TrEMBL record:
Belongs to the peptidase A1 family. It comes from Phanerochaete carnosa (strain HHB-10118-sp). Residues 1-21 form the signal peptide. It comes from the Eukaryota. GO terms for biological process: proteolysis. This is Peptidase A1 domain-containing protein. GO terms for molecular function: aspartic-type endopeptidase activity. Keywords: Aspartyl protease, Hydrolase, Protease, Signal.
Length: 374
């Protein structure tokens, strides 16, 4: 089990369903007053929303995962069918790098924030096996393209609607687009700062500074979801990515700033005394020596669509207040959010990256956008 690679279903990237066929040439729009939204929480090791379903149950710790596309609950407390629940007679099974979940499948009314759908496939887990650093956890809401959930529900050969798909299909939103504000962590306290939000049906222009960097989503390698090509990655003044292109993807179910092995080692070699540090079942991350001064460390910049998105040392070094979440003993070293992506991608932009930039997911046009916060 490779925890640092992110929360990925062991499935292939599927094609878009007919839900979006009519919207492929529409341009992204700003959110309207009626656009539904949901509060988004930063719980250090995961991003969460509250999901209400079943017998008027609210599951407060449902992990938001742009790397998968199934909605399920019941990891901590069981799903109880309610008056709107319909037992499909089918079962589901999903596997992540962090574990797995199996259970029964219902069609039900589901509410997330101010967004409600009435005919949503939802898994009711009766068996889970997930890493402890995700506790407390109620389930997952997958927000990748629906093709990646094909064959996860018994008796259904193709993909099923994600929660987002259902919002479009049931006419709750007009534009097949959503956006996400990830609240940052207070470095000293290791707690959420400000309010996070998922906005369905548009984006909030008041939160954007400058231009939005729009990139085409690519399925060139057939196994990723919100994948794209960026231009380059720099650590200080040195380019640490290859010269051709940088294959990357965002994964909100992954906390880390993952780099391919060559880029990862380039960062390590540029900081004297830097080394990989095992953090138990979660894998290995990079740690800088105790005598390293954050003020002297370089920033890391991700260049895409002609813009640079830069993280300072204070942003890519893990706050010591978060150590306990990952089972790290404070030995004086500076543990970072850097991890190796192996050969899966040149870069994986996880939660530690997403909390500093506005991200926009244009499902209808298969594009992804990033912007600096206003």
């Amino acid at each position: 089990m490779v925890h640092l690679a992110g929360l990925k279903l062991a499935l292939l990237f599927g094609t878009l369903s007919g839900t979006y066929a009519a919207g492929l040439v529409k341009l992204p729009v700003r959110a309207s007053v009626a656009s539904p939204s949901a509060p988004l929480g930063n719980k250090i090791s995961k991003l969460t929303v509250s999901v209400t379903t079943g017998n008027d149950q609210t599951f407060d710790n449902v992990l938001v995962d742009t790397g998968s596309s199934l909605l399920w609950v019941g990891a901590s407390s069981p799903y109880v069918p309610g008056p709107n629940s319909k037992d499909t007679g089918e079962t589901f099974g999903v596997e992540y790098d962090e574990g797995s979940a199996t259970g029964l499948v219902y069609l039900d009314t589901v509410t997330i924030g101010s967004a409600t759908v009435t005919n949503q496939y939802i898994g009711a887990a009766n068996q889970t096996s997930l890493l402890a650093d995700l506790d407390p956890l109620d389930g997952f809401i997958g927000l990748s393209f629906n093709g990646s959930n094909a064959h996860t529900i018994s008796g259904i050969d193709g993909p099923t609607n994600t929660f987002f798909d259902s919002l479009v299909e049931e006419g709750v939103i007009e534009q097949a687009l959503w956006s996400m504000v990830v609240p940052a962590l207070d470095v000293a306290a290791g707690q959420q700062v400000g309010e996070g939000e998922i906005l369905f049906g548009g984006y909030d222009a008041s939160k954007v500074e400058g231009d939005i960097a729009w990139l085409d989503v690519t399925n060139e390698f057939d196994q990723f979801t919100w994948a794209f090509n960026m231009d380059a990655i720099y650590f200080g003044d040195s380019q640490i990515s290859n010269d051709d292109f940088v294959f990357a993807y965002t994964d909100s179910g992954n906390i880390w700033l993952s780099l391919n092995i060559d880029s990862y080692l380039a960062v390590q070699k540029s900081v004297p005394g830097a080394a990989g540090a095992s953090i138990g079942p979660a894998g290995e991350i990079m740690a800088f020596p105790a005598n390293a001064s954050l003020a002297d460390l370089p920033s890391i910049s991700y260049s895409m669509a002609g813009q640079n998105f830069t993280l300072t040392p204070e942003q890519y070094v893990m706050p010591s207040s978060a150590y306990a979440t990952f089972g790290i003993t404070d030995d004086g070293r500076h543990y970072t959010w850097f991890a190796s992506a192996g050969s899966q991608a040149d870069a994986i932009l996880g939660q530690a990256w997403l909390q500093y930039f506005y991200s926009i997911y244009d499902v209808g046009n298969t594009k992804i956008g990033f912007a600096n916060y206003a």
